[in-house]
Amino acid sequence: MEAMEQWKDQLEQLKSQLEPWKNQLEQWLHQAIEYLNQIPPTQLYAAVAVLLISTLLLLSFRFFKCTKSNTIVLTGLSGSGKTVLFYQLRDGSSHQGTVTSMEPNEGTFVLNSESNKKGKTKPVHLVDVPGHSRLQPKLDEFLPQAAGIVFVVDALEFLPNCRLASEYLYDILTKASVVKKKIPVLICCNKTDKVTAHTKEFIRKQMEKEIDKLRVSRSAISAADISNDFDLGVPGEAFAFSQCRNKVTVTEASGLTGEVAQVEQFIRELVKP
């Protein structure tokens, strides 16, 4: 009974201590209501609208950050070595040389070079789009969700395929889904382990020249026949990849020998661990 009386006394003391705070809160609440009553309804509605819009924008921004794409698209002409590169990035194997794919190879995995790393590493969604001309439209299915594009070029057999590769790359660089989102593009000069392979500098210059020719020839076509969404380059100047709205870089690699470090670095800059 004595303990109960002590507890009641402590409760009463606490209540008396909180009483001033209660009165202060009631006073603040009363002042806030009076202040709101003095504000014209139009201003009050505008303030509420601004608050709601700001909250929605903040939530949208947070959602966008949380759902940033981890998709990397591999593309290029048939025979350039895309599929070998895909397997090399996935499990470190070349699958015994050239592999011709007629359907997209697709997988979500941790890059092979990072498979032994401790801690959390964000998986990459890698898509190898077939390079056959009849299947290139499949690329449009994956571009809207891409964080980056790896355009694979056969550095060994480059010259015979230079024009076709440049046309394909031109179409990619002028697509609205690529330009508006400023999707970075890596031109990967594959098979550079071979002695007779062309260097990345040579390939870059030749492709810039071909794309410059394409700009001229396609601008001469009537507007109704032009299928490209955006124009490339600066009018009156020779074309260079540095003029593109999205970042375009060139690197060397070899899917067969596993020299893919630069490709992995490109991917990891876009798909953070």
UniProtKB/TrEMBL annotation:
<keyword id="KW-1133">Transmembrane helix</keyword>
<keyword id="KW-0175">Coiled coil</keyword>
<dbReference type="InterPro" id="IPR019009">
    <property type="entry name" value="SRP_receptor_beta_su"/>
</dbReference>
<feature type="transmembrane region" description="Helical">
    <location>
        <begin position="44"/>
        <end position="64"/>
    </location>
</feature>
<keyword id="KW-0675">Receptor</keyword>
<keyword id="KW-0256">Endoplasmic reticulum</keyword>
<dbReference type="InterPro" id="IPR027417">
    <property type="entry name" value="P-loop_NTPase"/>
</dbReference>
<dbReference type="GO" id="GO:0005525">
    <property type="term" value="F:GTP binding"/>
</dbReference>
<dbReference type="GO" id="GO:0045047">
    <property type="term" value="P:protein targeting to ER"/>
</dbReference>
<dbReference type="GO" id="GO:0005785">
    <property type="term" value="C:signal recognition particle receptor complex"/>
</dbReference>
<keyword id="KW-0472">Membrane</keyword>
<keyword id="KW-0812">Transmembrane</keyword>
<keyword id="KW-0342">GTP-binding</keyword>
<keyword id="KW-0547">Nucleotide-binding</keyword>
<comment type="similarity">
    <text>Belongs to the SRP receptor beta subunit family.</text>
</comment>
<dbReference type="Pfam" id="PF09439">
    <property type="entry name" value="SRPRB"/>
</dbReference>
<protein>
    <recommendedName>
        <fullName>Signal recognition particle receptor subunit beta</fullName>
    </recommendedName>
</protein>
<feature type="coiled-coil region">
    <location>
        <begin position="4"/>
        <end position="31"/>
    </location>
</feature>
